Amino acid sequence: QQQVKQSPQSLIVQKGGISIINCAYENTAFDYFPWYQQFPGKGPALLIAIRPDVSEKKEGRFTISFNKSAKQFSLHIMDSQPGDSATYFCAAKKAGANNLFFGTGTRLTVIP
Amino acid sequence: DTGVSQNPRHKITKRGQNVTFRCDPISEHNRLYWYRQTLGQGPEFLTYFQNEAQLEKSRLLSDRFSAERPKGSFSTLEIQRTEQGDSAMYLCASTPAGLYNEQFFGPGTRLTVL
Question: Distance between CA atoms of A46 and B85, rounded to whole angstroms?
Fold first, then answer.
């Protein structure tokens, strides 16, 4: 059973456009929601993370929007660049637990 | 490079052989995790160490899998009697004391079982 559902599976965006990736969860025990970026042949790298006590967090061109009542969160990449082309994973972690539950990933391609 | 390192980066083995992977976490990170990632999927949790103690194991970690972290530094993951279904990327991550949530991943070891 997939604890975190991610969509879309793949995304193509023009350079300079906005990339939006969505995730949904059911378990209200989750209290930490990170996004990871993974390039081919590399391990996932932490991009940005949010706690459920805030509705939005912004770091540079990357923004997480969090809707606690809908149990959804999304990653927005503003002014998308070809260098952003990678696979993005959302994840969630329960309070007091040690492991992350990952979504199935979104393969982003930014075309020049 | 002060990140998490993993060796080997690639391993090809025949079915039935034993393999061992090594993870060196970031210095002074006391928490260490192993995940498995198959093609087109997100990482799945295998096991967790705090210092040298293995505190949590996933149901994915069958009895053919064993992990150790002697002296609370590097960790090894051994798979005995490998099966083709074990083919995956094995990822190691670590977290520093005082930072509860952030997990920093290594580059992974890609295992191919023929």
Answer: 28
The distance of B105 to chain A (nearest Cα, Å) reads 6
Q: What's the rounded Cα separation, in Å, for the pair B112 and A72?
A: 36
CB A31 within 8 A of CB A52: yes
- Backbone φ and ψ for A83, nearest 5 degrees, come out as -65, -15
Q: What is the pLDDT along chain B (114 residues), one digit of tens a residue?
A: 579 999 999 999 999 999 999 999 998 899 999 999 998 899 999 999 999 999 999 988 899 999 999 988 999 999 999 999 999 999 999 998 877 678 999 999 999 999
SS3 B70: helix
| A106-111 and A10-14 strand pairing | parallel
Instruction: With beta carbons less than 8 A apart as the criterion, state whether A57 and A65 touch.
Output: no
Distance of alpha carbon B18 from the chain centroid: 15
> How many beta-carbon pairs under 8 angstroms link A with B?
56
In this complex, do A43 and B56 lie within 8 Å of one another by their Cβ atoms? no
Distance from CA of A92 to the nearest CA of B (A): 10
What SS3 class is residue A83?
helix
Cis peptide before A8 (omega within 30 of 0): yes
Q: How far is CA A107 from the centre of its chain?
A: 11
